[in-house]
Amino acid sequence: MHYKVFIIREEVDYTEALEAFKDNSFIKLEPWGMSVDHLRLTITGRPNTPYEGGKFMFEIKMGEDFPFAPPYCYCHTLLWHPNIDSSIGPGKLNICLDLVNPELVGKVDIKTGASGWTPSKTLTNIIEALKGQIHCEPPFFNPADPLNFEAGDQALNHYNKFESKAKEWTKKYAMN
């Protein structure tokens, strides 16, 4: 019985996200295979960012404990970003985002106000946050709290160097 309730929640989240982003040309959401509990999210970099025109693919997988735990999120596209570390292999979290960190469920960072996952959060919240990271929108683009320390330091202290490398990686790894 519980399994059926969770499948309904996954379907509701997926349908809500499709509706929320149906007119957003930067977002493409689709099932990874045959089920809406495993999704492929492609975010296109917006103009005037280091990621302009790049296509960044994320995997989102809702586990058996969803919605009580966040979905597993992983960025498959190599990119130079303070909050995404391309050197971390699949199966591990390579995105620095409180919302998808299983260790931060129900917690709030007093300094930043960022909150971890709660069952009231949805797939739409996650997509908005990931889009904010790729579109360099604070608080989601946060070089002061990096996962990739070198990219974070560059973004804070040598932005031109950061921007140049991010554009180079976008052209090399995220363009069709």
From TrEMBL:
Gene3D superfamilies: Ubiquitin Conjugating Enzyme (3.10.110.10). InterPro entries: UBC, UBQ-conjugating_enzyme/RWD. It comes from the Archaea. Residues 5-175 form the UBC core domain. PANTHER family: UBIQUITIN-CONJUGATING ENZYME E2 (PTHR24068). This is UBC core domain-containing protein.
